[in-house]
Amino acid sequence: MKNIKVLHLASNDKKGGASRAAYRVHKSLKKYAQQLNIDSKMRVITKLSNHSDIIGGPPFEKYIRYYFLRSLNKITRKLYISDNPNYFSAPIYSTGMAKELNNLYFDKKLNIVNLHWLGDNTISIKEIGDLKMPIAWRLADEWAFCGCEQYSEFVLDQDLSKYPFKYITGYKKWNLNKFIWEKKKKYFQKRINIIAPSKWIAKNASKSILFKDSKIRVIP
């Protein structure tokens, strides 16, 4: 049996809980590679480790273009005023990552991409929709099925009539949140396999407009 070539995509490999989790998943697959018939690699923008199976840097080494677009991304976020205190991510500008990964797929150097936390303009929303290979997405937060917010449930006793969970009802008011969600709705047409690290986020993803028809599996 040929090895399944898995590529994990994340912003970085060791900074922050979500990236460290992605790193641990990758290293576990490496540890049991022979038993699982899996060849695992990791693709990050910011590489903090010295492992050769982790590839770092902007797509196609376009450093100036990448950091210019990341600056635009940060400016876009700062211009948006919201009552949600959570971090926002608005990856509007294409980075070239989809083209890089698709080339690897067509060259048979990978079979499946496992998405993790994609902050800091790792890959744009449209580029996620442009990926040609099978995709699994391990949810580090709710961003994948929300607008630009990483969590919708930010107050436990919130009044749902005042702040409904918009990933279930749809985003009505025109702002950056709605703009980002509409882009996801447009480009996330391909069915994405969802990996949920908790029953809570699996339940929320299954209720969302974007992922209600996706396969969702809980893997703690």
Overall form:
globular
**Proportion of strand residues:** 15-25%
The Cα radius of gyration reads 17 Å
Could you state the order of secondary-structure elements as H and E? Answer: EHHEEHHEHEHHEHE
Contiguous runs where pLDDT drops below 50 for at least 5 residues: none
SS summary, helix count: 8
By DSSP, the count of extended strands is 7
What's the end-to-end separation, in Å? 28 Å
Helix-strand makeup class? alpha/beta
The chain-level mean pLDDT equals 87
Query: How many strands, which pairing sense, and closed or not: the largest β-sheet?
Result: 7 strands, parallel
Strand order, biggest sheet?
Answer: 3-2-1-4-5-6-7
Helix content: 25-40%
Plain-language structure description:
Helix content is 35%, strand content 16%. It has helices spanning 17-31, 33-36, 63-78, 97-106, 125-130, 166-169, 176-187, 199-207; strands at residues 4-12, 38-46, 54-55, 112-115, 135-138, 193-196, 216-218. It is of the alpha/beta class and 220 residues long. The relative contact order is 0.14.
List the helices and strands and how they pair.
Elements: E1 4-12, H1 17-31, H2 33-36, E2 38-46, E3 54-55, H3 63-78, H4 97-106, E4 112-115, H5 125-130, E5 135-138, H6 166-169, H7 176-187, E6 193-196, H8 199-207, E7 216-218
Parallel strand pairs: 1-2, 1-4, 2-3, 4-5, 5-6, 6-7
